[in-house]
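Session log. Operator J.P. requested a structure for one protein chain; no other inputs attached. Running the standard single-chain path with token output.
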Amino acid sequence: VDMLDMVGIPSARQRSKEYPHMFSGGMRQRVMIAMALSCSPRLLIADEPTTALDVTIQAQILELLRQVQAQEGLSIMLITHDLAVVAESADVVGVMYASKMAELADVKTLFAKPLHPYTHGLFRSLPRMGEKKHRLETIAGNVPNPLHFPGGCKFHPRCTLTKKLAAEASSAETTTVTCEGKPVPVLKRCATQEPTLREVETGHWCACWECPGYANAPETSPADGDL
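Structure written below.
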């Protein structure tokens, strides 16, 4: 009851005896947060906490998470596909694709200077104030089947950068893969060698062979305090 009261459930003692279908979507999210906090965790993993909620309720849930973080002194791992939520709520952002970390940086750096082609694709797909487009840009192809991930960089069949560079490279440096049922040329290294996460700029990690500065960057993993 105390936990329900802490997350803003009105008449917490009475409502603790009610069934889930008697709560709104936002209230259910608050109950889930209360359940997660009942064990006094040091890390709260919030997986899509604002999905299927309207914008007003989303804002309330995000504000609740911030309040809980400040009161309890815990860390929050926020998993979301909503870049607006990321911009508003995150301190450090890790962009993942096909189970691998593609890019990692503090939120201001990532939004100001994205480096990985997948991150660029995500930002290009967003509508922007003042821009008139008939259609939003999309990332070609589909997310690969986890049972049959492609070799090399998992993003290479959909990557516009490797396709562009392959068009300018010699035949010895390229190979052909399939994207949306069509053969497309890509750089051979992208299709055969998987890049690791490297610190290409101070506090900014990227896993892309063609990322500026990647070739000379050391193969290091981010440690506590690096961001």
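Operator note: The CA atoms of residues 44 and 76 lie 5 Å apart.
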